[in-house]
Amino acid sequence: MGPLAGINVIELAGIGPTPFCAMLLADMGARVVRIERPVVSGGVPPSDVIGANVLNRGRRVVALDLKQPAAVAAVLDLVEQSDALIEGFRPGVMERLGLGPDVCLARNPRLVYGRMTGWGQDGPLANSVGHDINYIALSGALHAIGQQDAPSIPLNLIGDFGGGGMLLAFGVVCALLEARTSQQGQVVDAAMSDGAALLMTMIYQLKALGGWKNARASNVLDGAAHFYTTYACADGKHIAVGAIEPRFYIALCERCGISDPLFTQQWNTQQWAEQKAHLAELFAQKTRDEWCVLLEGSDACVTPVLDLDEAPLHPHNQARKTFVAHAGMLQPAPAPRFSRTPATLQNGST
Prior knowledge:
- The chain starts with 7 loop residues before the first strand and ends in an 18-residue tail after the last strand.
- By secondary structure, it is an alpha/beta fold.
- It contains 13 helices and 13 strands.
- The chain has a six-stranded parallel beta sheet with strand order 3-2-1-4-5-8, sandwiched between helices. A three-stranded antiparallel beta sheet has the order 9-10-11, with helices on one face. A two-stranded antiparallel sheet has the order 6-7.
């Protein structure tokens, strides 16, 4: 099942972006073997067990102490039978274990060797520690998000998952496709700092063209615009407004009963603050659900801001089965969707 059926991947257990990458590959049908450290008596696996940790779904687990020569030999035997290996250790760790790319590619010249780090395999910070917040800070992404007085932390979506695990999955699949022609493997160097910068491509373009101010809450997509932001409703819940295009903006004004001439100049940035204040007063007059009855699903581009309990229950998410129950836990379903080789949640084993 899935477009990657028949692809064999070795995952060296880690946290965050590397297991997310492995999850994406497994969701798409790849057979992923996860190498875990042996569990100490009475302890818990280093990154939890299959089924209890959603990021680890769909993999077979093998417990090996890579400090032992026999365990390293066992991994190299797996390498000979695999299409890809992914790891998320700091630079040099795999080499010291005797499982670096040179050794693995010598055993299997067609192997795709995926490496996930924060700063990359080289550069002044390559051996420095860090986390998502550090990597996105260096890319410019963190500075651009938030209110005027301080940056806001966008969970760990930009570094760990979007600019990290997803970038590595993309790189691994690209290298697998290339290997079909060349019959040669290669190393994929995926750095979260690079990935976070890549996700900022459009913002850097807008800035270069004079369409983006280098200050938070001053631009069309960072909450400054009255037609692209969130508003609190009478019940304390919020709605999201994204009426960028003129016809959608007109639809928003019409459905909200707005006839004030102030709102005829959508793109006059000098009036955005005043327009936003007026809309804030307007949206505070009804509950979120009352506004959704009036606006959701229309050309006004308005949706409710759902919390983690509400999102799986929304009719659209239920109709598309965006969230599914698996291994006793409600979790996001595999994506994207394929017409002929659908992705599926695989059962793992230890």
